[in-house]
Amino acid sequence: METSALACLGNIFLEPKKALQDIRAHGRWLWYPFIISIVLSVILIIWYFSRVDMNWLGQQTLAQLSGKNLSTDQQQAILGSLTRSRFLTFGIVGAVVVTIILWLLQALYYFFAAKIGGYEEQSYGQWFNFTVWTWFPNVVATIAAGIAYVFASPQTAFQSIDVTSLNTLLFHLSPYAGLGSVANSVHLTTFWTLGLMVVGFSLWTKKTLGKSAFIVLAPWVVIYAIWIIVKLV
Fold first, then answer.
1. pLDDT of 9 over the 80 cut
2. pTM, full prediction
3. Which tens digits make up the pLDDT trace of 78-94?
4. What percent of the chain has pLDDT over 70?
5. How confident is the model at residue 2 (pLDDT cuts 50, 70, 90)?
6. More confident residue, 166 or 76
7. Residue by residue, what is the 3-state secondary structure of the chain?
8. Which residues contact 91 (CB under 8 A, 6 or more apart)?
9. Which sign does the torsion angle of CA 81, 60, 57, 142 carry?
10. In sequence order, what are the beta bridge partners of 187?
């Protein structure tokens, strides 16, 4: 009996190898994780900015700009521009656009890595399908943040409800400066996704797990190494 797209949504968590094999022949199934991931992110952003205390958020935003020696008039102008609708618009557009760009770049990397390496070829569309599916476990982080916000006050930073990030769990650094922004970008589900990418790349290219791990993890290591160095300098 052939697996359905809905069954594959569950299998990516329960039987990842089977799911990663099944999606190869079903490119159109990518719309399921694609839409669910985007919609859940948008819902969380709408809920957060619809409930957050805007006066408090404005003051927090000004506090982040404290080192810029702003005049009173400049501060008032900034506060006046920090409307709920503006936060909502930038939050939604930013989340959707950034996520899709990351998916597109990740798929492009896999496409060229497989092609240059002489591995079993897949089209760019297939690698995009692969990328969207392997990112799907990140919805767990979104759902966890939503649950955390149920019990949070309206004067809670968005980063504080991101309960699966390493910064929230372990480091408790300012998410706006230093290494806090780096730690805030790494979630428990990030390791889950990377694991799926390694296993999936191995399945799709017929290469060893070791070689697949090197190819999948190399850009992440380079990007985060540069990011950490820049923050420390």
1. yes
2. 0.93
3. 888 889 999 999 999 99
4. 98
5. low
6. 166
7. CCCCHHHHHHHHHHCHHHHHHHHHHCHHHHHHHHHHHHHHHHHHHHHHHHHCCHHHHHHHHHHHCHHHCCCHHHHHHHHHHCCHHHHHHHHHHHHHHHHHHHHHHHHHHHHHHHHHCCCCCCCHHHHHHHHHHHHHHHHHHHHHHHHHHHCCCCCCCHHHHCCCEHHHHHHCCCCCCCCHHHHHCCEHHHHHHHHHHHHHHHHHHCCCHHHHHHHHHHHHHHHHHHHHHHHHC
8. 45, 48, 49
9. positive
10. 165
Residue 152, C-beta contacts closer than 8 angstroms, at least 6 positions apart: 160, 161
User: Residue ranges per domain, the chain?
Assistant: 5-232
Q: What is the pLDDT, as a whole number, of residue 208? A: 95
Nearest to 218 by CA among 198, 204, 189: 198
Q: Is the dihedral of CA 152, 191, 104, 225 positive or negative?
A: positive
pLDDT the model gives residue 66: 67
Tokens of 184: 């805030």
Q: Minimal CA–CA distance to 142: which of 49, 47, 41?
A: 41
Report phi then psi at 187, rounded to 5.
Answer: -115, 165
Give the model's confidence band at 138: pLDDT under 50 very low, under 70 low, under 90 confident, else very high: very high
- Per-residue pLDDT for 68 more than 80? no
Q: Alpha carbon of 225 to those of 146, 196, 228: distances in Å?
A: 31, 22, 5
